[in-house]
Amino acid sequence: MTPLDLTTRRADTDAPLITPLVERWSPRAYDPAAELSDDDVRTLLEAARWAPSANNLQPWRFIVARRGTEAFTTVHDALLGFNQAWADSAAALIVNIAEVADESGAPRPWAKYDLGQAVAHLTVQAQHDDLHTHQMGGFDGARLAEAFGLREGLEIVSITAVGKVGDADALPEPLREREVAPRRRKPLDELVISAA
């Protein structure tokens, strides 16, 4: 296996950032032999748990499916398109769920935003722990909700692949090309509408 030179994946930032943010990127090539320990999983979820949320409601839930388990197969089989072509080598697939309504049906309008914060915390912690994550939106949410018996008011928003970086040459084209392509971001002046 010949993993990528991770120094080539560092972000070329316009301002100094902390190391986990500079080094964070979303690989598709994962080491199929790497595993997550119970402590690894607990640490990632603990980082998510301490994210801020509206009224401290913490409207996030997670399904952690480690490679080699029935849950992993269920999540992997619900992935769509190219996601199935590479996600099978991740050490785990984490289903990210927003509690958009509580058990009485009362809406939680900021739940998806809050879940995003929790997943971002998980992602930065993973990077700090020498793990990499890749967020996915291509999946059959209804299939997963049924498979895991999710109640009304719980909405699957994304799935996060987690693991150690693997060999980009193991990816099918054009995914291999995308894996090694230069990283780009829009400049700040395109993103900021007004700054005083």
TrEMBL record:
<protein>
    <submittedName>
        <fullName>Nitroreductase family protein</fullName>
    </submittedName>
</protein>
<dbReference type="InterPro" id="IPR029479">
    <property type="entry name" value="Nitroreductase"/>
</dbReference>
<feature type="domain" description="Nitroreductase">
    <location>
        <begin position="22"/>
        <end position="68"/>
    </location>
</feature>
<keyword id="KW-0560">Oxidoreductase</keyword>
<dbReference type="Pfam" id="PF00881">
    <property type="entry name" value="Nitroreductase"/>
</dbReference>
<comment type="similarity">
    <text>Belongs to the nitroreductase family.</text>
</comment>
<feature type="domain" description="Nitroreductase">
    <location>
        <begin position="80"/>
        <end position="164"/>
    </location>
</feature>
<dbReference type="InterPro" id="IPR000415">
    <property type="entry name" value="Nitroreductase-like"/>
</dbReference>
